[in-house]
Write a structure and sequence with these properties.
Blueprint (H helix, E strand, L loop, with lengths): L9 H8 L2 H16 L2 E2 L7 H4 L8 E5 L24 H14 L10 H4 L3 E5 L4 E2 L11 H15 L4 E5 H5 L11 E5 L4 H4 L9 H11 L8
Parallel strand pairs: 2-3, 2-5, 5-6
Antiparallel strand pairs: 1-4
Keywords: Cytoplasm, DNA damage, DNA repair, Glycosidase, Hydrolase
GO biological process, one term: base-excision repair, AP site formation via deaminated base removal
InterPro entries: UDG_fam1, Uracil-DNA_glycosylase-like, Uracil-DNA_glycosylase-like_sf
């Protein structure tokens, strides 16, 4: 499993792979994929890192779990494969982009196009058992992805962190807010959005405004 991560991340994350928790996690994930249907496909577990090299990271979006329906998860948080119906949270993300950025609603829910521009689409838990939300939580993934967030915070500058919802907002403790931009909002899920906690947050224009302010390239959302 370790060999799957993009080489640009290895100098920064390699110490994690030798720790007992990660060895236990590897054993757990291998057993789950062998005995159950799990997502994303095994070769896409580290897709977030494959599509966004360490040096290219400009924005971090944090999700919680991969989608647990058949054919949905592709290793990037909130993203689905081409041709897959957009899940409700993704629909609300795209609706906010429509009004915030005056962009047309996209045909595909595949967010690889964001990742290739330097948006790290990181789930806190990188795997899940089919149709069982949260089934791979508290097995070690959160320790690993917390390290990823802290490493980006420590070793890079002027990164935009988009923390949506209560779970993601708790990760602010891992981020040096003096040298990075943290933008928070309610979660794009219907439960949160319908209560008025999502729409109008302008996460996308605010992110681009900051990137321009620090002489970085805007993201084409």
């Amino acid at each position: 499993m370790i060999a799957e991560i993009h080489h640009s991340w290895l100098p920064h994350l390699k110490p994690e792979f030798d720790k007992p928790y990660f060895k236990d996690l590897t054993t757990f994930v291998a057993s789950e994929y062998e005995n159950h249907q799990c997502f994303p496909p095994k070769e896409q577990i580290f897709h977030a890192f494959d599509y966004c090299a360490f040096d290219d990271v400009q924005v971090v979006i944090l999700g919680q779990d991969p989608y647990h329906g058949v054919g949905q998860a592709n290793g990037l948080c909130f993203s689905v494969n081409d041709g897959v119906k957009h899940p409700p949270s993704l629909v609300n993300i795209f609706k906010e982009i429509e009004t915030d950025m005056d962009e047309a609603y996209p045909i595909t829910g595949n967010l690889e196009r964001w990742a290739e521009q330097g948006v790290l689409l990181l789930n806190a838990t990188l795997t899940v058992r089919a149709h069982e939300a949260g089934s791979h939580q508290k097995q070690g993934w959160e320790t690993f992805t917390d390290t990823v967030i802290k490493t980006i915070s420590d070793k890079k500058e002027n990164i935009v962190f988009l923390l949506w919802g209560g779970y993601a907002k708790k990760k602010v403790k891992l981020i040096d807010v003096e040298k990075h931009k943290v933008l928070t909002s309610g979660h794009p899920s219907p439960l949160s959005a319908n209560r008025g906690y999502w729409f109008g947050n302008k996460s996308f224009s605010k992110a681009n405004y900051y990137l321009n302010e620090v002489d970085k390239t805007s993201i084409q959302w």
